[in-house]
Amino acid sequence: MTETSHGGCRCGALRYEFQAEAMFPGICHCRACQKTSGAPHAAAFAIPEGTLRITGKVTQYEDKADSGNTVRTGFCPTCGSRVFGGSSSMPGLAVIFATSLDDPSGFQPGMHVFAASAQPWDPIHDDLPAFPGMPQMPS
């Protein structure tokens, strides 16, 4: 049985919960994640979109990725924390940013994506598979 996971934004106005196993857990080094997070990379994973329950107001931002896919980011309109998102390349899945979890200590990345965009001052120092862009995800 899968436990219910909880998370939300910095100020607590936007909360979410889901009951699903993490899929495609990874570290993303793309420029969009860098600019949106203000950090050199972002830890994230996917869950079935239908398992995500949200309370509070959400502001969404949509943009075109380098791949041509539409990517969306959901964030708190009060504090600006990015908590989840998605991509037209993964219909039916929501992307959860691991640091938005109430307890992110259990997150276990399985890969690096957009490693070609990793900043030279933040090198990859583990043995996880590193893809230069986004690998083809199984459907």
Provide an overview of this structure.
With 139 residues, the protein is mainly beta. It has a single domain (5-117), classed as Metal Binding Protein, Guanine Nucleotide Exchange Factor, Chain A, CATH 2.170.150. It has one helix at residues 31-37; strands spanning 5-8, 15-18, 23-28, 42-48, 53-55, 59-64, 70-75, 82-87, 93-97, 112-113. The strands form two sheets. Strands 6-7-8-9-4-3-10 form a seven-stranded mixed sheet. The model has no long low-confidence stretch (mean pLDDT 93).
The top-level CATH class is Mainly Beta
For the biggest β-sheet, the strand order reads 6-7-8-9-4-3-10
The domain count comes to 1
β-sheet strand percentage: 35-45%
Q: Helical region count?
A: 1
- CATH architecture name: Beta Complex
The percent of residues in helical segments reads under 10%
Mean pLDDT: 93
- In whole angstroms, how far apart are the ends? 23 Å
Structural class: mainly beta
The total beta strand count reads: 10
Radius of gyration: 14 Å
Within the CATH hierarchy, at the fold level, what is the topology? Metal Binding Protein, Guanine Nucleotide Exchange Factor, Chain A
Major sheet, described briefly? Answer: 7 strands, mixed
Low-confidence residue ranges: none
H-E order: EEEHEEEEEEE
What gross morphology would you assign?
globular
Question: Would you kindly provide a brief summary of this structure?
Answer:
Helix content is 5%, strand content 35%. It has one helix spanning 31-37, and strands at residues 5-8, 15-18, 23-28, 42-48, 53-55, 59-64, 70-75, 82-87, 93-97, 112-113. It is globular and about 35 Å long.
